[in-house]
Write a structure and sequence with these properties.
The chain is an all-beta fold. Among the domains are: 253 residues, YVTN repeat-like/Quinoprotein amine dehydrogenase (Methylamine Dehydrogenase, Chain H, 7 Propeller); 82 residues, Immunoglobulin-like (Sandwich), CATH 2.60.40. Helices cover 0% and strands 43% of the residues. It contains no helices and 41 strands. The N and C termini lie far apart (120 Å).
Amino acid sequence: MKKRILLSVLSLMLVPSMVLGFSWTRDSAVEIQQNLASNYEPSGVIWNPDYNALFVVSDEGDLTKINIDGSNETAWRIGGDLEGLTIDQSDPRYIYIAKERPFALIKFDPINGTIVKNVSLVGVVPAVSSVNQGIEAVAYVPNGDHTYSHSPNGGLFYLGVQEGGRIHVVDVNFGSGNAVLVDSFVPVSGRGDLAGLHYNYETKTIFILYDSSNRLREIKTDKTFVEEYVVPGNAQEGVTFLPGCPSGATSIFIAEDYPSKVLRYDGFPLSCPVLDTDGDGVTDDMDMCEGYDDAADLDQDGTPDGCDTIDNRDDDNDGIVNEYDMCPGHDDAIDTDADNIPDGCDTVDNRDSDNDGVINEYDICVGYDDNLDVDSDGIPDGCDDTDDRFCAANIGELGKTSVIQEDNAQWHTVNLQNTYIDPVVIAQMSTYNGSNPAHIRLRNVGNTSFEFQIEEWDYLDQWHTTEEITYIVMERGSYEVNGVMVDVGSATLKHNFKTVTYGAQFENVPVVLSQAQTYNGGQAVVTRQKNIDTNSFSVKLKEEEGNDGSHANEEVGYIAIEGGSHMLGNTFFNAIVTPDNVTHSWQTVNFSSMNNPFFFSMMQSHDGGDSAGMRHRNVGSNSVEIMIEEEQSRDSEMSHTTESVGYLVLDGVGTITTELMCSLN
């Protein structure tokens, strides 16, 4: 047991300027040892947050747990000269007790009341000259807080020795029971009688208690001096603190072994570190918004954004701050349909601009009454291009006329039975009364009439005897009539082949008839075709060979019709392509029996490049003779190689009528 020295009571302590006003006198102490035995000699004390209690050890071998007011005592008999105790703040379940004789460190479990491990420090902590001048205090400093190498055991134990006032730093492995001396140092040269140690986790400093000099010295773990305080009382043996940061004031407990006392002094000043936990340049004690940057205040209302529950900006300048803005980025005051949802965020237009009882958002036909749907197809009449009820429609007509051609200035007018919007005319001679090579030329194709002439080639005299002319007129467009696809159209072109794409898609290659509808160039001209397929065909204008071959732009009309024997509305027809065997020689072509056949043909190939057209004769009820007729403007020969010829023969004069979806326009 250490020698007891009776010291006079000091009424004041020396304190740093930052804590002036703190009064630390024996009169200000609160005694809390009242439940300890009268002969109990406290030799160490530690506050344990896990138990919310103080642990006091005596040099007679007792360990006691008490509340900070001294109540609720629990005691354990351990035995031996116990001189100090500490905890590992990261795992405060255990109490670590320093034993003076022989040197040892005990790990104690208060929950089970058992010693977990007793590690001998003999030979680790240097021996002292007197048995009563050995280990008097212990403090635990975790890795990261001390300046030594990282310990695999989590931290280091600082053991205070009374003789010479030396502190030994020891690394202890309670698993293996091994201990290693890391360092030894003397905090104050020439000052012995070291009686207590405490490591404060908040200030990261070590407090060293000297009982002979009545001093409490505070140092950093790198051994540099922080402060020193005069301690009131006698025979001080242990020191500990309650938590006190960030307020900077706390309760300090001093254990005295003669007479036996545990004293609490309130208001002790701690040098709490100035922290800026959130790194915003404002210390924690002044931080307006912990965890966030105090400088970030977008709405400039004095409350940092991280703690601001209201965004007082008005980014869209509509007079409503962001926090209460119904439609950010848009003017909340604009609400065209008056549904309390600003237009900028309104997905439904609740107005009914056309007063049909259907709001604009769901209006099928804006500007018209959605309820009017005469054909019940779900499309209001105002936006319906077709009446899905079927109506009788005149899509074309067939006609015949016989004329004599006096000269090339003479034009013949055909007045049509029906009125058309945009008609296409195909007209051909069905007789062969005059042997001069000739064909039909059109002009002024209009809504109710067209003009034609029998056009001989330019090298001839342009007089031609009487011939019968048959013609078919069809309204431009694409039709599917009785399952038959028909496409009627036109293209502007001249003497070079031009590809024309149909307005409809054919499943099979159609029969194509084409003819110039205009008279922009005065030279005699026919059309030649090639590359006919289901999507398109190529066509050009062809003058006589004696000319230069160049011709002005003409509008060329065409009729493309699906092959086979079908009804085109009320009119029966055949559309057939011959084998590639038609030449300049007359050849009989057969077709279905008809009462009044109208026959049209056109070369579908371009095997021979000479200027040529089709001529017909002897049109009967089920056959006709056809040939390819060349001209002799450059030479006298009129032979033509084989071509495939498409022909269309229809039964009956007059209007071609069918049923189509009715137009609502």
